[in-house]
Write a structure and sequence with these properties.
With 317 residues, the chain is mainly alpha-helical. It has three domains: 54 residues; 113 residues, no CATH class; 108 residues, no CATH class. Helices cover 48% and strands 10% of the residues. It has eleven helices and five strands. The strands form two sheets. The protein has a three-stranded antiparallel β-sheet, with helices on one face. Strands 4-5 form a two-stranded antiparallel sheet. Strand 2 and strand 3 form a beta hairpin.
């Protein structure tokens, strides 16, 4: 029985009795206050007893129905597999020995092997590691049992293996000595960190001075008014959900995602748009591209930049 119902029942019973309570004569104020205090004390006791009786009735009904409530217990449930002793120190030592050298000895793998396995030079890896090692999730922490957890270099290397080779989350476990759930979380944290920290730096649209320099170089190469090369490509989506299969069905019968990018003659990519369904062609992708929406709205590029074509001077917008 809920507490509200109990209060209703108790008040229904005790309130008429309080009205019928015999009063022999005029009472003083202190006597009335004492009577009210004793009444509310009795009321609190009645509420507690009524609630206790309701719990007993509910437990009895559950017992009859065969559903006896059990007290909650702490710790892991019976039969749960204990955590593996992955020896994080050994995993970090193996990484340092193979790629950076330990104790004054040269690393086992050369710079070429490092770049081939991690898809980036060692200098870029060190810069990335320096940026993430002091972040809250990447720092070496202590679990509830007081044991030290994995090193930042283990998480970073495992995430790069997943991103660089498309490996499943349980594949780098043997070398990096991390659980699949930790590797999955490291991959998500790394991608979010890179986007949040360096998107405004490396995917920044050219400034006015850079646009003038690009136009000058392209005009010398016989392409006046050209500020970059734009193209779209399809990335195959093997794990596409069935609910989105028709939307991402491309012309080759595969499920894919369209990627739009713009680069200059030095193959420097300064625009990257991904996420359009595979059923879109290039015209549909341009129609929803953030860059083309800004161009059509007159936001970018600047209006004061011009170029000359066939003896006529035109503006970019």
């Amino acid at each position: 029985m809920p507490p509200t119902c109990i209060h209703t029942v108790v008040l229904t019973v005790f309130f008429p009795l309080w009205l019928l309570w015999p009063i022999p004569g005029p009472l003083r104020m202190d006597a009335v206050a004492a009577a009210d205090g004793s009444f509310y004390d009795d009321l609190d006791v009645a509420v507690v007893l009524g609630y206790r009786a309701g719990l007993r009735i509910r437990r009895a009904l559950l017992t009859v129905r065969g559903r006896v409530e059990k007290r909650p217990f702490g710790g892991s449930p019976p039969g749960r597999r204990p955590n593996r002793d992955r020896n994080f120190d050994l995993g970090a030592h193996s990484i340092m020995r193979d790629y950076f050298g330990v104790g004054g000895e040269p690393p086992v793998y050369s710079e070429r092997d490092f770049e081939k396995r991690n898809r980036m030079p060692r200098a870029v890896f060190k810069r990335l590691y320096t940026a993430v090692r002091n972040e809250p999730w990447w720092r070496r922490s202590i679990n509830a049992t007081g044991r030290l957890q994995s090193y930042p270099i283990q998480k970073l290397l495992a995430a790069l293996r997943v991103l660089g080779y498309g490996e499943p989350y349980d594949r780098p476990d043997e070398y990096c000595r991390l659980s699949p759930s930790t590797i999955a979380e490291a991959t998500r944290c790394l991608t979010n960190f890179i986007v949040d920290k360096w998107e405004a730096t490396y995917l920044l649209r050219p400034t006015e001075d850079e646009l003038k320099h690009i136009l000058t170089r392209n005009a010398a190469r016989g392409m006046p008014g050209c500020i970059g090369s734009i193209d779209c490509t399809h990335w195959l989506w093997l794990k596409c959900p069935k609910a989105l299969a028709a939307q991402y069905h491309d012309r080759k019968g595969k499920r894919s995602v369209v990627v739009e990018s713009i680069c200059n003659e030095d193959t420097y990519i300064w625009h990257f748009f991904i996420g359009a369904p595979g059923s879109y062609n290039d015209m549909n992708v341009l129609a929803c591209s953030p860059l083309m929406l800004d161009v059509n709205a007159g936001v970018w590029p600047p209006r004061n930049i011009s170029y000359t074509l066939n003896g006529r001077t035109r503006r970019l917008l």
